[in-house]
Amino acid sequence: MLLVLPVDLDDDLGRKTGFSTPVIGRDDVEAAAVELATADPEDSDLNVLFQAVHTYDELVADETVNEEVAVAAVTGVDGGDVQANRAVGAEVDTVLAALSTGEDVRAIVITDGAQDESVLPVIRSRVPLDGVRRVVVRQAQDLESIYYTMKQVLADPETRGTILVPLGVLLLIYPFSVIAGILEIPGAVVLGLVSALLGLYTLFRGLGLERAVDSAADRVRNSLYAGRVTIITYVVALALLFVGGVQGLETLETVESTVGSLQPEAQVAVFVHAAVRWAAAAGVTSSMGQVTDEYLSDRFRWRYLNAPFYVVAIAIVLYGLSGYFVPPSAGGIVVRLSLSELAIALTIGTLLGVLSTLTFAVAESREEEAAGTV
């Protein structure tokens, strides 16, 4: 027996028409094709169904085919490939059981593209294949067809953004050049700016960063609506980091204007020594905001309190190291630490980190023991 087997991997037939699958028999397959054409004339799967009916009629009319011919449409599911392939396999089993013939069954698979053909190993594991027919719809390449294709492409928001945004940037090159000429700006600056914009947009689209940006915006919006403290503390922390950076640069400029230019390692030491206190304040602020939100959400753990202590411990260590490596000539402007003072700073930072870890670990352990006894 020859079985003509049209495959609809994403189940457009079932979802759009309500037909129960598999559809077995020529008349039922034709009726399903007509129903799908009525529901969605643009769906390529209806061509697969009609091609299956056509192939069935050709085989029946062919006098050289001396065996029974059957046709049945099988579908998958609108989901992952694994689930869809399993669904197609189950429907092929149903079709083979419904045919209940003693003859060996061989199949001719009808598909509309490579995606549906990914299920061929599943079908081949159940029935030998005599062939695979991919249906390609012929389109007239006239003006109306081109217009319709462009209209369909521009109606898709994702495609519209991908095509029109770079085109719009390119079209703005000339007016940008005119404005640059009026403002006496070199043309290379305009071309460089446009090239940078196109490059950033290409990277943005190529790396799929629009999803990350949308996700970040959703998280920020949800945090605002939920009244999360971290929104405020993060803003304050960024402000403190900015102030610390400015303070470090101003201190470095003051030192170099007084004692002359410094070596790179000395510049780093002066900058860190002046900015580390502000950075520590930013770290403590942001960590306390996170701890507060965890407490309000009933997810608080004692170990979370380690974060601000760790920040302070790291800040003490960095303050001591940078103060020790500050050049002697800058001692009148920034605090320069001796070797013994460096040792004290390193000891305090280490003890602070270790003691906070032990303290909160013991507190958390006792809290768990108390909860267990209750």
Automatic annotation (TrEMBL):
<dbReference type="InterPro" id="IPR007254">
    <property type="entry name" value="DUF373"/>
</dbReference>
<dbReference type="Pfam" id="PF04123">
    <property type="entry name" value="DUF373"/>
</dbReference>
<protein>
    <submittedName>
        <fullName>DUF373 family protein</fullName>
    </submittedName>
</protein>
<keyword id="KW-1133">Transmembrane helix</keyword>
<feature type="transmembrane region" description="Helical">
    <location>
        <begin position="225"/>
        <end position="246"/>
    </location>
</feature>
<keyword id="KW-0472">Membrane</keyword>
<feature type="transmembrane region" description="Helical">
    <location>
        <begin position="185"/>
        <end position="204"/>
    </location>
</feature>
<feature type="transmembrane region" description="Helical">
    <location>
        <begin position="304"/>
        <end position="322"/>
    </location>
</feature>
<feature type="transmembrane region" description="Helical">
    <location>
        <begin position="342"/>
        <end position="363"/>
    </location>
</feature>
<feature type="transmembrane region" description="Helical">
    <location>
        <begin position="161"/>
        <end position="179"/>
    </location>
</feature>
<keyword id="KW-0812">Transmembrane</keyword>
